[in-house]
Amino acid sequence: MAATVDPRSDTSLRRVPPLQRAAGARADVVILSSSLLVDRMLTHTAFLDVLGQSANAHVWATSAANPRFASLWAEQPARVRPLPSVRAFRESTHNFARRVNEAVWDHRQGDPSRLSMRRHGRIYGGCRRPGLSRSFARLLATLPIERAFESALGRWLRSYERSRESTALLRDLRPAVLLCTGPFQFEQPAIVASAQRLAVPTLALIPSWDNVSTKNRMLFEYDGYLVWSERTRQELYERYPHTRTRPVFVVGAPQFDVFFQPRFHVSRESFCAANGLRPDRPFIVYAVGSPNFLKGEPDGAEYLARRVAAGELGDVQLLVRPHPIHDNAEMASRFAGLGDRVRLQTTARPGTPLTARSQDERAILDWVNTFRHADVVVNLSSTVTIDAAICDRPVVNLDYDPGPGGADTPLIRDINHVWTHFAPVAESGGVWLVKDGEEMVAAVRGYLENPALHRERRRWIAEYVCGHLDGRNGERMARAVATFAHEMIACGRAANGD
Fold first, then answer.
1. Fewer CB within 10 Å: N-end or C-end of the chain?
2. Domain shared by 137 and 217, yes or no
3. Is the pLDDT of residue 346 over 60?
4. Whether residue 234 is found in the same domain as residue 333
5. Is the Cβ–Cβ distance between 277 and 343 less than 8 Å?
């Protein structure tokens, strides 16, 4: 889809100082990555190929420092280097002010997801005096000053040098644009601050469908934004009012392009052989989410594994898939000794730091074909639901905490029925919501007997979340970045009278 705001008519871009670049020169574009979830957008889609047709791509990635992925990055049509070093904010001043700012916006906007997270104690982030910050925020929230407060905070945080290395690199390169793919993360905003101090235009990719409504606030205002879908664009407008005057490109979800690429498709027989499964028997995938958020998910997987191992679901198999960012083999002991009907998939090399992880072609093959060939997918309110919907795989979604005592059940019910990003999916009729282990087993049985059940609503889920389902989102993102970069150059020339 084309940019939702035409950069040529957007007056916010005219505040960017002119770039000193000769007519006809190729734009230099710096792309930041500090997560394997973004790496796979860059390395396994057409993004860098298409961008390279009109610009010089420079990728700064944390995983580029990992020798294991040297060949992966060497194959890319870009100049690749490790992400520059970054230091933390001061906890007693910077982080205190950030937490106050976030609480003020939460009070003023009343976003259902954020208020739910606060009720359940799931707002995190480096402040040693949370009670004081909340009290101060409640006081400020009585006044309509949130935009002025955040603007002043952004100027203050931007003035604090967190990455001298990136400042030096950007000063020498003077790119036409810097693309931040982790505006809610720790590392990348430090480099964005360096870019903005040097008047380098900045773009922010909102890298997932839940980020706008669930993450702590972005630290800085960007000159433009990339989002998955029209729905995400509307959420961005609602939560960040200044974005209504900036270009917002709707580009789809590039990481899902791999599901549409035949080179990543293998036969059921090949996939099952590689994962210790029998291709002539159905297999269920239980995809475990991040342990940083919900601790009880492995208990749900173990419960289902024991039922499968005992033959209570018939002659079926279970493949347990850990989250690729958090797979450190902690679950191996849970599933050892359960027989040949239960297998634990390996999604990462244990012990590798989170930001040093990436996914080579073997890992992408496993990911894509896990969902292409699964007969039923079980998960707890995660993006795995979208993976399955794209592949038309039935989805069982937990509406309870499977951990001992079910302490997080109220939170999980909120995720499924209140949270902005997931409630429309959970209540769409495209997933089977279950309230306990017995219902989970019954739902799995139901889908094994009738895999076409809820098929039309699954298609709706995929379209609603992703925006485009043609495997060309990497191309769209590249064209948006190139368009933005060349508009920045044109604005600079116009300002110089060229």
1. C
2. no
3. yes
4. no
5. yes
Claim to verify: residue 331 and residue 357 sit in the same structural domain: yes
CATH of the domain at 170: 3.40.50.2000
Same domain, yes or no: 430 and 322: yes
60: part of which helix (H) or strand (E)?
strand 55-61
The amino acid that residue 146 corresponds to is E
Which of 357, 420, 333 is closest to 117 using CA atoms?
420
What's the rounded Cα separation, in Å, for the pair 218 and 243?
Answer: 12
Q: Going by C-beta distance under 8 Å and a sequence separation of 6 or more, which residues neighbour residue 357?
A: 36, 63, 66, 324, 325, 348, 349
- Please tell me the distance from the alpha carbon of residue 335 to that of residue 317, in angstroms, as a whole number: 13
Q: What is the pLDDT of residue 204?
A: 98
- C-alpha to C-alpha distance for 26 and 31, rounded to whole angstroms: 16
What is the pTM assigned to this prediction?
A: 0.90
Q: Is the pLDDT of residue 13 over 60?
A: no
The widest CA-to-CA distance across the chain, in whole angstroms, is: 77
Same domain? 26 vs 168? yes
Same domain, 247 and 307: no
Q: Residue 392 sits in which domain range?
A: 262-466
Angle value at C-alpha 77, between 75 and 78, nearest 5 degrees: 105
Task: Looking at the structure, tell me whether residues 376 and 479 fall in a common domain.
Answer: no
Instruction: Kindly report the backbone phi and psi dihedral angles of residue 349, in degrees, each rounded to the nearest multiple of 5, phi listed first.
Output: -85, 120
Please give the Cα distance from 282 to 6 (Å, whole number).
50
In a domain, 183, yes or no: yes
Same domain, 43 and 55: yes
- Adjacent-strand bridge partners of 202: 178
- Alpha-carbon distances of 231 from 265, 283, 426, 460, 464, rounded to whole Å: 30, 34, 16, 13, 8
Q: Which helix (H) or strand (E) holds 492?
A: helix 473-496
The count of domains in the chain is 3
Model pLDDT for residues 219-263, shown as the tens digit of each residue:
899 999 999 999 999 999 999 999 999 999 999 999 999 999 999
What is the DSSP pairing of strand 248-250 with strand 224-227?
Answer: parallel
Q: 3-class SS at 224?
A: strand
Residue 128 is predicted with a pLDDT of 58
